[in-house]
Amino acid sequence: MAKPFSSELRRQAAKIWRAIDTHPFLRELQAGTLSMERFTYFILQDYLYLLDFAQVLCLGGAKSPDLQTLEIFNRHALTAVEVERSFHASYGRSLGFSQKQLDTAPKGPITEAYTRHLQAVARGGSLGEIVAAVLPCYWIYGVVGKKLYRKRPKRPKIYREWIETYASDGFWKPVREQIRLMDRLGGRAINAERKLMRAHFLLSSRYEYLFWEQAYRQQRWPV
């Protein structure tokens, strides 16, 4: 019996995911020793990322072949806008950002590159390609949340709450929905499309690593 396509993708991205697992941003976050400046930079960039992410999900909905798939994408896009953005906005207030500062902050280099990658796939690719491109964001955050949850810090409170959010069953429900969709679409895709899906999945996984790296180094445009 053939393995699910999602398992194949995760196996091929294993080296990248291991690098994420050991990244100092996440190790220090779990220990409660991550500098607040690095966490603040991360929250700001993640907030900016979400608008593009929600738009990509809407484009996935537009390419859905049935009402069930359309409902998944629309619900996930709404969650990104209403729940995730309010979640980040509340963090922003805790960290001293006004709503205007959140909305007008410039994207960092990796944020810009990552969102352009997702938008390009969403506008020019198949539904299977879109799912392959967005799945690492869902899946990696869920895996990170569960791993960090086991030894989550008591303080700072904001670090513990961030970990608990991504380890929660509420977050994992859409993760599992996207994994099942990936398996369904990957199982029926022709070889040429599956090759593109693998490439998108791996590139998004690399951008996920670089997103942590960008926050840890607080990278900005040099000129």
Give a concise summary.
The protein is mostly helical and 223 residues long. It contains eleven helices and no strands. Helices cover 82% and strands 0% of the residues.
Can you lay out the helices and strands and say which pair or pack?
Elements: H1 5-12, H2 14-21, H3 24-31, H4 36-62, H5 67-94, H6 99-104, H7 109-124, H8 127-149, H9 157-167, H10 169-188, H11 191-217
Describe the protein.
The protein has about 220 residues and is mainly α. The chain has one domain (about 5-215): Heme oxygenase-like (Heme Oxygenase, Chain A, Up-down Bundle). It is about 80% helix and about 0% strand. It has eleven helices and no strands. The radius of gyration is 17 Å and the shape is globular. The mean pLDDT is about 95.
Structural class by secondary-structure content? mainly alpha
| Amount of beta strand | under 5%
The CATH H-level homologous superfamily:
Heme oxygenase-like
Distance between the termini: 53 Å
Stretches with pLDDT under 50, minimum 5 residues: none
The CATH architecture term is: Up-down Bundle
**Backbone shape:** globular
What is the CATH domain class? Mainly Alpha
**Total domain count:** 1
The percentage helix is over 70%
Radius of gyration: 17 Å
Topology as H/E string? HHHHHHHHHHH
Query: How many DSSP helices?
Result: 11
Task: Please give the number of β-strands.
Answer: 0
